[in-house]
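Researcher: We plan to redesign the surface later, but first we want a full-length starting point. Tokens attached.
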């Protein structure tokens, strides 16, 4: 870094001392085809790091990049999707849909004796007709 380019952070009592104030550039925004010394981080040897370099690395989302959609559009789209899902849940709750099932059939007159029925009073159960 040249002396002409050196500008420290202002001393407000909570600052970073005389660390150089560098413009934040995310690693994704740098030229991927340049001849870098450290290709993964896209930087050269001896290049000073930004004070928040951990947030500007390629493993982090690029918070400096401008979104292609406006915040109003994204919030509206999210609200529309959540409203549609809520409406579908409401319809599914109001109009229940189950597979048709016949009642469970047990042998020996639906286990009449096993369920505590009187063996002398056993009803005749037909599960089908021919």
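Model: Full-length starting sequence:
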């Amino acid at each position: 870094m040249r002396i002409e380019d050196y500008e420290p952070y202002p001393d407000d009592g909570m600052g970073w001392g005389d660390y150089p104030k560098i413009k934040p550039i995310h690693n994704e925004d740098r030229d991927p085809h340049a001849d870098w010394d450290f290709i993964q981080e896209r930087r050269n040897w001896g290049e000073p790091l930004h004070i928040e370099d951990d947030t500007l690395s390629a493993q982090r989302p690029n918070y400096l990049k401008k979104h292609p959609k406006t915040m109003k559009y994204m919030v509206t789209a999210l609200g529309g999707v959540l409203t549609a899902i809520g409406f579908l849940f409401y319809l599914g709750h109001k109009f229940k849909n189950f597979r048709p099932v016949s009642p469970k059939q047990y042998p020996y007159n639906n286990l009449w004796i096993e369920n505590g029925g009187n063996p002398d009073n056993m009803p005749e159960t037909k599960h089908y007709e021919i």
